[in-house]
Amino acid sequence: MKTWTTLLCVVLAVAFATGVALAAEKGAAKAENPTAKGKVKEVAADSKSITVTVGEKEETFAVNAETKVMQGTEAKTVADVKAGERVTVSYKEADGAKTALVIHIAAEKHAK
């Protein structure tokens, strides 16, 4: 009986430790790629940056060949992003510069 109790405790401890490790890893992934939600103010003519109004603040994100642009499940290009559209930008920050990883264009609201 004592052996079964010990075995059960070991299994529960391993399961708990695994769950904690996975939660910490998931939290670290979120911290690595922050997001910003707002309205597009401007897309640079050369399509190398996008400025988004987030609350009362404007944030500018560099755009490169690795930046993905999505609207729903459809792939788009930076040229498809227009001023006034609502977007969510997933980005990375290095040396004070923000580079867009993924730009999600919000679906258009249809008038009823």
Structure, explained:
The protein is α+β, with helices and mostly antiparallel strands. It contains one helix and seven strands; from the N terminus they run H-E-E-E-E-E-E-E. The protein has one helix at 2-32; strands at residues 35-43, 49-54, 57-62, 68-71, 74-76, 86-94, 97-105. Strands 3-2-1-6-7-4-5 form a seven-stranded mixed sheet, with no helix packed on it. It is elongated, with a radius of gyration of 21 Å.
Cα radius of gyration in angstroms: 21 Å
Task: Measure the end-to-end span.
Answer: 68 Å
Share in β-strands: 35-45%
Sketch the topology as an H/E string, one letter per element. Answer: HEEEEEEE
Notable traits:
1 helix, single chain, elongated, seven-stranded mixed sheet, 112 residues, alpha+beta
Question: Can you describe this structure in just a few lines?
Answer:
With 112 residues, this protein is an alpha+beta fold. The chain contains 1 helix and 7 strands, in the order αβββββββ.
Task: Explain the layout of strands and helices.
Blueprint lengths: L1 H31 L2 E9 L5 E6 L2 E6 L5 E4 L2 E3 L9 E9 L2 E9 L7
Parallel strand pairs: 4-7
Antiparallel strand pairs: 1-2, 1-6, 2-3, 4-5, 6-7
